[in-house]
Every structure is written in C-alpha cells, then in structure tokens.
Design brief:
Blueprint: H1 33-60, E1 68-73, E2 76-81, H2 83-110, H3 116-143, H4 148-154, H5 157-177
Antiparallel strand pairs: 1-2
Helix pairs in contact: 1-2, 1-3, 1-5, 2-3, 3-5
Protein name: DUF1648 domain-containing protein
Region (Disordered): 1-25
Keywords: Membrane, Transmembrane, Transmembrane helix
Length: 184
C-alpha cells in the first residue's frame, strides 16, 4: 500500500498549500467581495442608472416647447432642435461620462489595487456624470409648459444650478458608497 505521507522536502506537500475551502474569502484588488460589489454598484451601475432615469423622465414630458433652444452663441440662440433630439443629445453626453467613470473604476480594479485616489477619481467621474445629466434635467424641467420664446428668455441659468446640484449629489453619494482603499 502506498504511503499517504509526502516525502521529506516535497514543496508540493499538502502541508505547504492551504486546503481548498480554508483559504478565507477571495480578494480582488485588495477588496473583499462586499467592497468589490460596492465599487461595481457605485462606480458603474449608479452613474448609468442616473443617466437612464433622467432620459426616461425627460422623454416622458410632452409639454416642452416644440422648438427647443439647443445652443447659445454671442448673438443669442443660434441653434434649435426638437425636444427629443435635445434630450437624446444630453443623454449621450452623460452616458459617455458614465462609461468613462466605469472605465476609471474598472481600470483601478484591474490595476490590482484600490486606493483612496481610486475612490476620488471614480467619485469625480460620477460627479461629472451627475453634472451633465443634472444640468440638462433642470433646464428642461424649468422649460415645461413654456413657449419657445419663453424658454429663450429663461436662458441657461437654471441649468447651471442643475450642474452644481448634479455634481455634488452624485459625487457625494458615490464617495460615500465606495470603499476607502489603502495605499500600498
């Protein structure tokens, strides 16, 4: 009958390797499974969900001006679009920011470590996503029930408030949800 004891000096012995199931929780980029899920939720899903919800809500508004002032130049409005074209354009811009945010989060994870800097960059990316979506959302919200001329007279001031509020809200939420990370 063969011996169940490995020969002396065998580096592949059962004693030199932890038994499967007794290794403890598996870690990715220094994060536990719960922390990893927080990065995916806050750094990937939350910005994308914010953009999608904004687009769905704005697309449901039927009381926007028929010709929406889409761009202002030195002499006033120099481009008009349909409300849905304007909504889709802003959604694409915000979606690009959300994809960049997801890329920042994924890049930091694939880089093998999650640090406080990773947390900060991902939060700023999410904040920029919130700024873009929030600015357009507030501008459109204020334009509901207005004529094209009234929307022109409204100007872009309301949108600036939405930019600030969107940035602060999504930055703060993401920063709070993301794990702190460690410097190596």
């Amino acid at each position: 009958m063969p011996s169940l004891t490995p020969p002396a000096g065998d580096t592949d012995s059962a004693e030199s390797k932890p038994a499967r199931g007794r290794q403890g929780p598996r870690r990715f980029a220094g994060l536990s499974a719960a922390e990893l899920s927080r990065v995916i939720t806050a750094g990937v899903a939350l910005p994308a969900l914010f953009v999608l919800c904004s687009w769905v809500i704005e697309s449901s508004w039927t009381d926007l001006p028929g010709r929406y002032p889409a761009h202002w130049g030195k002499g006033g409005v120099d481009r008009f679009s349909s409300p849905q074209e304007y909504i889709n354009t802003q959604a694409v811009a915000a979606a690009v920011a959300a994809v960049v945010t997801a890329g920042i989060a994924a890049g930091n994870l694939l880089g093998g470590a999650w640090s406080p800097l990773s947390r900060g960059f991902t939060s700023v990316g999410a904040g920029i996503t919130g700024a873009i979506a929030g600015g357009f959302f507030v501008q459109l919200l204020r334009s509901r029930g207005l004529t094209t001329q009234a929307a022109i007279e409204l100007g872009g001031g309301a949108g600036f408030l939405g930019v600030a509020a969107g940035f602060v809200a999504l930055f703060a939420l993401t920063f709070t949800l993301l794990p702190r990370g460690k410097y190596s």
